[in-house]
Amino acid sequence: MVYKILADAIVVTHFLWILFMLSGFVLTLTGFFWKGFFDRWLFRALHLLGIAYVSLLAIMGKYCPLTLWENTLRARYDPTLTYPGSFMIHYAEKLVYPDINPLVIRIPTTFIAVVTIVAFIIKPPTKIRRMFKW
Length: 134
Description:
Order of helices and strands: HHHHHH
Largest sheet: none
Mean pLDDT: 82
Strand content: under 5%
Number of helices: 6
């Protein structure tokens, strides 16, 4: 039972991670177009590192460690509860799509990463700009 609870907690954590990645992207774009709207250097730096990591995993065709960990815990609880493939694809298929191509996740993830990196370079947070005298 402990394995199932831990696996469910990882699903919640995974969902919160996805929300952080998507909301960070929206906030970064908003701050890029409206000066001073979103200048939280720690949030933006963590988001930049996170989205770079996520997009690298997507480009390499690797699964998120949270997905692997969840499947390992589910297999320990009940081997019939595991699923092959990506967390996002598994849950997106259940909710919306009967059959989804992994590129549907990889392309937007890579796009978000590129835009986030460019926004961070062109308009870094004030604190980082001062540190490096941009």
